[in-house]
Specification:
69 residues; mainly beta; single chain; two-stranded antiparallel sheet; elongated
């Protein structure tokens, strides 16, 4: 998240690549990807202070190999 959406186009048989779906053709077993995002924000002024905590599921993905036999 801190890289502003920058990603790489790597291909691996063990890891899913959400940025480059064509790289997922190298998968040789099913792969799950699950991410949770947590945000803790504090805003204060001279007279008041507010704190906001947010946690949510960022994404859930499942990829599996498809091969001709």
């Amino acid at each position: 998240m801190g890289m502003g959406g920058l990603s790489t186009g790597f291909a691996s048989n063990n890891f899913m690549n959400l940025s480059n779906p064509a790289a997922n053709s190298f998968l040789d077993k099913p792969v799950f990807d699950f991410a949770v995002k947590n945000q803790d924000l504090t805003v204060s002024s001279n007279s008041d202070s507010r704190r906001l905590k947010t946690t949510y599921i960022n994404h859930f993905a499942y990829a599996f190999p498809v091969k001709n036999k």
